[in-house]
Amino acid sequence: AGLDSMNAGIWSQLFLVAGLIGWLVTYLFRALTQKMTYSEQLKEYKDAVLQKQLDALTPEELAKLQAEIEQEKDS
Fold this sequence. Notes:
Layout: H1 5-32, H2 37-56, H3 59-74
């Protein structure tokens, strides 16, 4: 019953390598699609900084910024 030591070694290495390749594929996918924790946190931080800057604008500055954006859209 069971495997001899040679077959057991081969099968255990096969499972280890298959698991490593599977993990590597998922890692590369997450890295290329920017779905990694660091990328998500960086995006959330940048969004929060921009929102804070936007909230700090006076109504006049906000109107000027909106006018500039509309002008860029039209050109």
